[in-house]
């Protein structure tokens, strides 16, 4: 038995409450995870986990061992990071999480190029629109857009975007172009469900909008706006191509837009692993300030 592997498997199962999720984060089979924990329990001579058909429970011995094992693994991580702090080599496994639409357009192509430059690096890139728990789910880095809740995580701003109201030329020809925020509230608005939905913000002004479509995916709203269904209020990175090619028209450019930060978020450590630091530098340089999606749309610079 490899004691370190078994300890890692036990800690991950205890933190996630699931053999299956632990196996996914460690890139092992569920059978292998189960075998490692059985061998660890045999080695220690105690039962660490109480298994039922529905849930996993730590035994008293398991709770005590978990605290010690977490400390040991954290100390090992910090020791490795400290040794690698002066090294320029980027290698090993890196788990990254990012939002779906932004990730497909602007994150995944850069990850691929970064890996070409660093062939000793292995990456698992997961894209979804939920706020993952980096510590529990084993991520080294997450890309997040918008306000960040207070937490023990560390955040580095990499780029910015703005929310832009937009509509298709066909919609504007049929319904007219709103010239004021009050007129905007009288239009058919396409709403993003997870960020306030029916409340749109322009600078310090908030207004309630209504419309025929609400979705938790920005691409759905972009496609609907291009089809002429209504007015969308979209992050600039989502509509760069649509505006450049004339499928959408930016509206109310005299109003102050809401600006959102795009952050790299990672667990707090005394020494940031070289692979994380180098990737953050790479992304920040590639996206630029102003970012490429703002430059391509020809929008006025975002205020600092």
From TrEMBL:
* Gene3D superfamilies, per database record: 3.40.190.290, Winged helix-like DNA-binding domain superfamily/Winged helix DNA-binding domain (1.10.10.10)
Q: Which UniProt keywords apply?
A: DNA-binding, Transcription, Transcription regulation
- Domain (HTH lysR-type) ranges: 1-59
The superkingdom of the source organism is Bacteria
User: What is the official name of this protein in its record?
Assistant: LysR family transcriptional regulator
Similarity-based family: Belongs to the LysR transcriptional regulatory family.
Which species is this UniProt entry from?
Billgrantia aerodenitrificans
